[in-house]
Amino acid sequence: MRVNRKLITKIGIHAILILTLIVVAFPIYYAFVMATHTHQDAYAFPPKLMPGKELFANISEAWQRVKMATLLKNSTIIAISVSFGKITFSILAAFAFTHFKFRGSWFLFPLAMVTQMMPLPVRVIPLYRMMAQLGWLNTYWALTIPYLASTTGIILFRQFYMTVPAELADAARVDGATPMQYLRKILLPLSWTNVAALLVIEFVYMWNEYLWPNIAITASNMRVAQMGLRMLYTSERGAAEWNIIMAGTFIIMLPPLIVLILFRKQFSEGIAMQTTK
What we know:
It is built from 15 helices and no strands. The protein is mainly alpha-helical and 277 residues long. The protein has one domain (68-275): Orthogonal Bundle (MetI-like fold). Helix 11 crosses helix 15 (264-275) and helix 13 packs antiparallel against helix 14 (242-262). The longest helix has 34 residues, at 2-35. The chain starts with a helix and ends with a helix.
């Protein structure tokens, strides 16, 4: 009887997991199906659930219509620049908070946490005026500099550095290592999983950013991928061409998906490391 209960429980859990997977995966599958059909078939009723033969034609149309190569280039430059910039500043700030005693440190860290409570929409107007005064509108500077400070990254590395035994720093100091040598040769090699986790988080976040680029950018050669997706929604036919929109969506999904696949192991280990502390 006990064996049967365990078996029934296991079957129930797997059934729930499979159902959840179907619920999560079906919209992605249906978006792919729409990307393979013509404009007329995308509006057919009942909806077509099997792939068609127009995938590459739709991808080509989406690519040419919004100059997708330029959009992907801009998004890639911005996402990589912000990701590495945030990682660098987060490591240095977390190292300072955990390994140095300086006046006001008790106040600066909570102050940094306050910025987490102020999302970008709250700061849009003063930020726009600042970028305009600096002459940075329609430049990469406007799309990267405002994002370089990362409270999330500081917390991630600070929590990790607090778990590193103090004896390790003492031993490095006895051996004549400077603080930056200790950071570069000891702490950084121990932090690669955290670096990978933050890289994935920030790359995906910046790749999906739409609000600020839509405000700060008006030049067509500086538009990003998410702006291109919005441009695909505007159709000369009146009705949205969902087959073209979904084809464009799959093109734009590929870079963050590749980053996640490449760093999936380190990302999982970095997140698990934080949740177990």
